[in-house]
Design a protein that fits this description.
This protein is α+β, with helices and mostly antiparallel strands and 110 residues long. It has one helix and seven strands, in the order αβββββββ. This is Secreted protein. Keywords: Signal.
Length: 110
């Protein structure tokens, strides 16, 4: 093997290795919802790497799949909404592979 070929092969392997390590650092979506009181719920979204999720879609959806409260997380990565009268779940949707569903039964009481 000639020296220039080995150098090019090393450069290719270095680039491939960097690509694989970047995917190993991928972050997972996280969302938590807590009841503030009997009528208000506050949800906070973000990622496992500690980054926030401002502007990410967070919808409150009825069991019949109707959107009861359409929303997006604010600049502080939170959304507060009035608790619906119907059964519901919260859908945090940061794109393909980055979705979290929280059923109303899993929302912490005040």
């Amino acid at each position: 093997m000639t020296r220039p070929f080995r150098l090019r092969l090393s450069a290719v392997l270095l680039v491939l290795g960097a690509g694989f390590s970047a995917s190993a650092l991928a972050h997972n979506p996280m969302c938590e919802c807590k009841a503030i009181d009997a009528e208000q719920i506050k949800c906070t979204g973000g990622f496992s790497d500690g980054s926030g999720a401002p502007g990410v879609t967070l919808d409150v959806i009825g069991y019949d799949e109707t959107i009861l409260v359409p929303g997006k997380l604010g600049s502080d990565s939170t959304l507060t909404f009035k608790k619906p009268g119907a059964e519901f779940y919260v859908l945090f949707d940061a794109g393909p592979g980055h979705v979290v569903e929280i059923d109303q039964a899993d929302i912490e009481a005040p």
